[in-house]
Structures are given as structure tokens and as C-alpha cells.
Amino acid sequence: MSFLRDKYGVLAIGAVASLVADQLVKAAIIARLPVDAGIAVIPGFFEICHARNSGAAFSLFVGNPLAFFLAANVAAISLLVYFFVRLERGQLLIAGALSMILGGALGNLLDRLRHGGAVVDFLRFYVRDYAWPTFNVADMAIVAGVALFALDMLRADRPARRPQGG
Length: 166
Known about the structure:
The radius of gyration is 18 Å and the shape is globular. A four-stranded antiparallel β-sheet has the order 1-2-3-4. By secondary structure, the chain is α+β, with helices and mostly antiparallel strands. The protein has helices at 7-32, 66-86, 92-114, 137-154; strands at 38-42, 46-53, 119-127, 130-131. It has one domain. The termini are far apart. Helix 1 packs parallel to helix 3, helix 2 packs antiparallel against helix 3 (92-114) and helix 3 runs antiparallel to helix 4 (137-154). The protein is built from four helices and four strands; from the N terminus they run H-E-E-H-H-E-E-H. Helices cover 53% and strands 14% of the residues.
């Protein structure tokens, strides 16, 4: 699998896998559960539900117009592509991290475009009166990508950055 030794191969696999997994699971949720319905998987702890989030992460910024979220998504995707293009040869862990974040951002962007500005969420964890905000596969890809990025930053064998300028 020589294409995985190249940052563009990693981008293709990571972003496409994240995006496709996200959209397939969301399609299954939409087909099987009406909005606001849920199935308890572990009663009192975890359910699969069909929720629509018109806000950002953790339902922040609910009520903002769709244009706000589209602009934020496009800006984030543009920054990810910018950073990705600047990666040096061999920075495959960061390439993987950025590709997962990109795939997740694209998945949530597609939702907003297809579902009237809302994102389809379906994983809900709760204990008694506390419920973690409902989330989806795209969100998990973004969090995993950020974790990989942080892991790369903490690696002991990471080469030191050369100062710019002269």
C-alpha cells in the first residue's frame, strides 16, 4: 500500500472514510427513526436517537443563520487544506489527523446543506439528569483527528522546527 506513504493518499483514505462512514450511518438513522425518537441501548446510560442540531458543537450558536455556519465550515475547510498542503514529506500522522478533521467537517457541512441548516446527531450518553450533548460520526472523526494532532505534537522523536527568516 504505497499510497499510504504519501500525504495525499492518507488524505484520500482518511477524509473519504470519515465522510462515507458518517453519511452512511446518518442515512440509516434517518431511515429508521423519526426525529426526536430514540432506542435505549444501555438504559440509563446510552441511546441511539435521531436529533437535529441547528447549532455548532454542544449546540452552541443555535439560532444563527445558515450563512454563519456555512461560512464557518468553508473557513475551517480552507484552513485545513492550507495546512495540509504545507505539510512536509513524512508528516503522515498529521496528514491523517487533518484528513479525519476534514472528513468530519465535510460530513457536517453536507448535513447543513441537505437538512435545512441542521446536523443529524444520534449518539446520546447520559447519567440521571446529566446528558452529554448528542453527537455523530463526523464529530468523532474531528475529535480523533485533533487527538492525533496533539499526539504528534507530544512525540519525543518529533523533529525540532527550524526558525523562519534570517
